Amino acid sequence: MTPYQVVWKGPVHRLSGLGIASNSYVHALRRLGVKVQADDSGPAAPRSGSSPMKRVLICHQLPHKFNFRQARKRYDAILLNTVWETSRIPRRWLPLINQFDAVCVPSAQNERALRSSGVKIPIFRVPHGVDTAQFKPDNPKLPLRNMGGRFVFISVFGFQHRKNPETLLRAYWEEFSAADSVLLIIKTNGYAPYETQAWIRQKIRQYKERLGIRKPTAPVLVLSGQLTPSQLKGIYTRGQAFVLPTRGEGVGLPFLESLASGTPVIATGWGGHMDFLNGKNAFLIPYRLKPPAVSMDSGHSISRTFRHLFVEEGQLWAEPDRPALRRLMRTAYRNPLLCKKKGRQGRQDVRKLSWNRAGISLKTAIEKALRSKR
Questions:
Q1: Phi-psi region of 80 (alpha: psi -120 to 50; beta: other; left: phi over 0)
Q2: Does the pLDDT value for residue 31 go beyond 60?
Q3: N or C: which end of the chain has fewer CB within 10 A?
């Protein structure tokens, strides 16, 4: 065992991307011999001065107000493990982050965003991983009736503006007609109780009407709500290509899961996912960097915007080129063998991106932070 123990403050039991990452980091550290307590909900007892065991607190969350004076009595080092999706973090986060001993981020894009925003403490790059024994090409496909040999695009995301559902839908509707043997499956979720599957489908119908699209288009299947692990894995293997014209990602866990499943990705060429996406395993959409308010105020937004996070001066994210997205989707549709080739390459690439690798990076960050505190 290591001469230190870790208390992990993060959503280890949540079934979101953040929760999956939190749980995976904890288990990776434990496999490396680190003693980890996954929840520090007990009494705020001070650290024993006679104990040789160092104590480290890792907060796996967005920065918020934190009682550092109290925490310093209990821990030898306090680290933040966080993620961000635009070119700069919110200004109110800067003084909060700089009170930690170090911050861990999962991608090069995140590291650049924090440095350009004025973060002065050590920044460690601690990547996400993917379980290639769970997400694999031979997983049973999600059962669907009346497929009729269609080429299937899949997309997995939360129903928010950053994920860019409007550009995905518009490009698909404009490019494919009812005569094309193609299907788009969207697995999504809302962020409030009223944001149900019926509500999301209504938003999509209203957007299509607002665009004035009258001709019959290729079908879209919207799935919301909780899926079983086998159903989620089966979505990835059901598709011939994963498509998401995201405006910004800290990592993009569904991209990793798709590649692990042997399904290539159509994605915007900017964001944290560019640490592992390239022209051999993906179709990359060209883009321009623009302030988030531009698209939010365009009249095309159909999902939750989270304006309080993304509209500060100086923040930029990617606006993917819709005509280019249309061309790439058409290319994938016409070239299933190319999709398989990219999918095989993607599977090979992410086999190196394990959660054990992530755990080693995190363990190194912890130990460097402890040494700097001596």
A1: beta
A2: yes
A3: C
